[in-house]
Here is the input.
Amino acid sequence: MSSWQHIPILAQTIKELLITDREGLYIDGTLGLGGHSKILLSSLGTKAKIFGFDKDEKAITMARENVADSRLETFNLSYTECARVLREKDIQGVNGILFDFGLSSYQLDDASRGFSFNKQGPLDMRFDTAQTLTAQEIVNTWPADKIEEILLNYGEEKFASKIAQAIALAAREAPLETTWQLAKIIERVCPRTSKTHPATRTFQALRIAVNDEFGAVKKAPKLLKEVLLPLGRAAFLTFHSLEDRIIKVALKDLCQDKDTWRLVNKKVIEPSWQEIKQNPRARSAKLRIIERLK
Ligand SMILES: C[S@@+](CC[C@H](N)C(=O)[O-])C[C@H]1O[C@@H](n2cnc3c(N)ncnc32)[C@H](O)[C@@H]1O
Here is the structure.
């Protein structure tokens, strides 16, 4: 077992609500360290299978080690490729699919990935390290108005203009290379006024932009028509209001066709205070589940 940790969120609830066939096929669209897959497999039968996708090659290696189960087949691909993978395998569809969006604790804790303003590291932030776009390229080469746009759209940062100007000005003097350099620039223009570090929203926005996360999140509900079997279910775990809004609206749209789709939980499911106490990362999680009726 690797030393990196990630506690799967709402894992028991997801297991209870996602599994409709103990011997079925499932997709874990965001495998991470395999926490959810491991728990799902503990309730699945010997003929069941999980196809696990992750853009992060290192996560896939660790998930295989952590789960150590021949019923898990992994793909170092975006979940947006899952319909193609099923077609290539001549599989009609799956009984369930899980999306646990965002990044894992392991990625946040690994300084070399550059996701955290708390750790000195390169301004990288790529899930897929084979991709060329990095956070460093954005802060050093994108114009201030484009940086402001992502801070607004992906971070809901109210000081977007001030921060974007400060980044562009600093980058003109000397290229920004590290997480701490960037965090210091933000601290200078937005002094800390609450418990939340002033760089929090900028780091979130850059990460979403680098990985085109919203592009993929928007595609996720669209995949369901192609990959879910009748009576199959899809679970979506989101971590901020922007992501949750995309999913909420998309599932509502699907449910316009009442004969084909129904929401399993009318009210969004959130972790209990006990879970949040044990795992503070769970505090902003929201779970939505939809079922295909025919
Ligand atoms: C919150 S973590 C998942 C944790 C996992 N459920 C567990 O219990 O260990 C999200 C994972 O999704 C991956 N990811 C993000 N966008 C992706 C995409 N479009 N396709 C596949 N994986 C993606 C990230 O690399 C990260 O490992």
Q: What stands out?
A: Strands lie at 25-28, 49-53, 72-75, 94-100, 228-238, 261-263, 286-292. The radius of gyration is 20 Å. The domain at 132-210 is CATH 1.10.150.170 (DNA polymerase; domain 1).
